[in-house]
Amino acid sequence: MRLPPERPRAVRYPVLAVVFVCAACGLVYELELVALASYLIGDSVTQASVVLSVMVFAMGVGSLLAKRLRCRAAVGFGLVECGLALIGGCSAMVLYAAFAWLGEARYVLVAFSLAIGVLIGAEIPLLMSLIQRGARREQDAAGTVADLFAADYVGALVGGLAFPFLLLPWLGQLTGALVTGAVNAVAGGALVLWLFRRDLTPRSRWLLVGANLAVLAVLGTATALADDFEQAARRAVYGPDVRVAVRTSLQEVVVTGGHGGPPDLFLDGRLRVGGRDEYRYHEALVHPAMNGPRARVLILGGGDGLAAREVLRYADVRAVTVVELDPGVVHLVRTDPELAALNGQAFRDPRVTVVYGDAFRLLRPPGPVQERYDVVISDLPDPGLTAGAKLYSAEFYGLVAARLADGGRLVVHAGSAAARPRTYWTVDATLRAAGFATRPYAAAAPPARATRTAGPPPAGPASPWGYLLAARTPHRPLLALSPTAPRLRSLTPGSLTTAETRIERTRTAERTGLPPSTLVHPRY
Known about the structure:
Helix content: 40-55%
CATH architecture of the largest domain: Up-down Bundle
Order of helices and strands: HHHHHHHEEEEHEHEHHEHEHEHEEHH
Number of strands: 11
CATH topology of the largest domain: Growth Hormone, Chain: A
Largest sheet: 7 strands, mixed
CATH class of the largest domain: Mainly Alpha
């Protein structure tokens, strides 16, 4: 039915407003999938590539399929929006459930990307049919298309900005997606049932009313149960001992165990501190680098305070600077009795100073960390994680080199040479490209525990943690323990020698000539 020519604006502006809202909701669904997949699966570049490429392909498929609905554009658009609101709104919850109870989220991620992409692609042809009802004459077609795409792009901008700055901090990932779905359903349903009600048969009208009410009921129920669902899923992932679960401005922090036993600390689903065995990792990380001058020590990462605990065991250490990205982690470690006991109240020591921010930015002039240090300890996330790849680049190691005093040493956790040899030896090649001489060594990791999460420590089932001791000298740095080293539980001079011999066996000819990782060409 063609609306009277005197009412073009009454059609065009409401349609453009709904285009704006739908575009914003569609981009929120995309970003939600990327963010949650990066958190659950890891490797944000891969997850973003999968979601966006699959979704763009599916949008093309949806546009083709929508051609069959153009003759009934109003009811078609109403049903598309119902489906999009339901699938997009529930996508985060279903993805999290698949990870928590099935241990696999990749296939679910692809399925949701396809479904959401098809529905978003179907919107455009149907909306163009609807907005043409506001044109005074056929010559307005080009202007109509321009208006539609302008509203679509502006809506995408608003949705893209609202996701990180409003939805995530205020509502979180699960509730944010559900609320977005409800807004999507209300906008689409209101447009069709109000403005284009004359295009609907009584049966179609009741179908859309029932579908929208059902979708809103599902989304509302899921929102009401979101907290209980999240707690149940968290127990499925981390076990029944979840003691603390908080979301800082940067990540989710979960503490399990404690109550008289050693606690475990998870950051974004990855085990960062295994309380029963962390001393093996931190003794091997810290003490070989402390053989020599050590008055001033810089720890990159280490917000758990455990590397600082080992450093402070040397009485001649005068100053320790800890560079930590997330203030929420340090606050939790300072205030949680179990974690504070595990790190020996390291952050209460007057020799310790904590500087918050990105290590790359802070070390780069004129950043606040410009002193020279005898020892630099890189206690950073695994180099295989895309988010931290720049902190394993030749440019970053160049910044570190500028902060080393004469005779200073750098130690880097480089992942497992047994489980990920190419990654480990790429870190070695990158250090060498930055002008360091290196010495590889490892420490035996404990048997892996039954958990669906992964990340250092531990490095993997029976895979030793791999380290690189580096110095800016023409000779290889000395790999030994200081004669005045405190008594250690897991490390001896003999074990260091054995670990170096074992790890050198993984240095094949192919891995010797690996190219270094740089900011513009990350190799991890």
